[in-house]
Write the structure tokens for this entry.
Amino acid sequence: MTTRPLPVLDLPAPPRRSGGDPRSPARPAAAFDEYAIGPEALPRFFVWTLGCQMNRSDSEEMAGALLAAGCAEAIAIESADLVVINSCAVREVSERKVIGRMGQLAALKAERPGTRVVLTGCAVRDQGPAALRRRYPAVDLFLRPDQEPELVARLGLAGPTAPAMLGAGVAAPDRPDASPMLAARASAVAAGTIRRGQPWAAWVPVIYGCDKTCSYCIVPFSRGPERSRPFDGVVEECRRLGEAGALEVTLLGQNVNSYGHDLPREERFAAIAAQRPLGRRLDLAGRPDFAALLRAVDGLRRGDAQPAIPRLRFLTSHPWDLTDRLIEAIAGCPSVCGHLHLPVQSGDDAVLRRMGRQYAVEGYLGLVERLRAAVPGIALSTDVIVGFCGETEAQYEATLALLRAVRYDQVFAAAYSVRPGTPAARLPDDVPPEEKRRRLNALLALQEEIGRERNRSWVGREVEVLVDGWSPPGGHSHDGGGPPIRPGAARPLAGRTRENKLVHLDGGPERVGTIVHARVDHAGPYSLVATALT
Ligand code: SAM
Ligand code: SF4
């Protein structure tokens, strides 16, 4: 059987809506004329996802839409007729990964001229179609993140039997004016078409975009302003996941704890009157907030009164929006895991000001104190940027001092990377690359020590692990922590504790996707080694 040809895709991304917020998502472009359904097989697709959890979640939605349209998934780029690249642009190196694949993709297309390449995600911004084509010459169609719901329609694959979500411009039933991302999610949840990576753990986006103005960051430009999903829509998606047996749900957003400020007021949220302590004065009275959402999802119960979803997580929290209401909710909800990712970026007030982060070190440390008092034993992780514009040695040392003071469980650190078009791109990028590297390596070495010490406190304790991987015995530990695992005594299972600690443990592949109780034997800087008890 031959494969149905995909249309020639040489349309530039449609212009954004004129007037209003320049970052507002555009209306969906006119769909391609539908292709007559013939006897040919539909294209096999491969989605290559880079970057954050939000991208992974978006890819699940796009893959689900293609499957619902009747396409099949290819096991590799080489065997696909349609390659969808969901890109990341947070650092230059992320963009380079995709640019570096252009030659391979061009060769594939030369070999099989029907092959089409679509680029989505944060690399697709308003740089003009010519600039995009120069950077990504093998790409046929560019879709900004807010245009991803148009994928199937733009490919001419939305046949008459396809679910409604596959056409462009569908509206969320409860918010007829909502953006395409919200509408597409509502339809995909209703139709059950999201192609989840595994049944035991799920991503659930709750807010799209970002309203912050961190001067180094491309995300507000690529993903547009914040748009919260309707409260009941999120709860319903979680209810379905619980019913289907999901053991863990992670609520997602670039800044998840500013959820709800853009939703309509409702009587049931009348008691919510929180104000952001700093920055934009938002009147949040009568609108849902993230604390209310967390409590509602935690409130989903099974017949035996246990949480319907045993493990609830959320990513990412901006310190600015971490209210006392939210800290109380984290402490008061039994399903919410004892781990918080709270990016700090720098330990120096002047650098934080230049970064536009809207908090100072003292305020951040106060939050950490309140969190640790409310949720004893909570694990903390963070993001740090070293070598930001004008960062002196003393300012960098202040970040090291902050790491020593907070003693995070995990730190994701990166050297500052200029992002064209961001406010910081106008500041001198004056820390030389080799100095950035030195600072980064020294910071990671410090954190390795802190991580090892923090993990040592787990030795001998019992942990609850959600197992998510198995590799055949005979491999070796990548950790370097604890005594080397002897061949034959290798721990082939890997999973996470409620505190998000990576654990290697013994057992067979049948335990993947289950919760196992285990005792910790050894600790390294990045993971624990444990013996299963059940
Ligand atoms: N919204 C989250 C927050 O407020 O921290 C994080 C989202 S951002 C996409 C993920 C991380 O990428 C940031 O926390 C920051 O540390 C890093 N990052 C963003 N822009 C960067 C840049 N230009 N150079 C280096 N790292 C960057
Ligand atoms: Fe980027 Fe700041 Fe928004 Fe995070 S909060 S996505 S770092 S602008």
Observations:
- The CA atoms of residues 255 and 317 lie 5 Å apart.
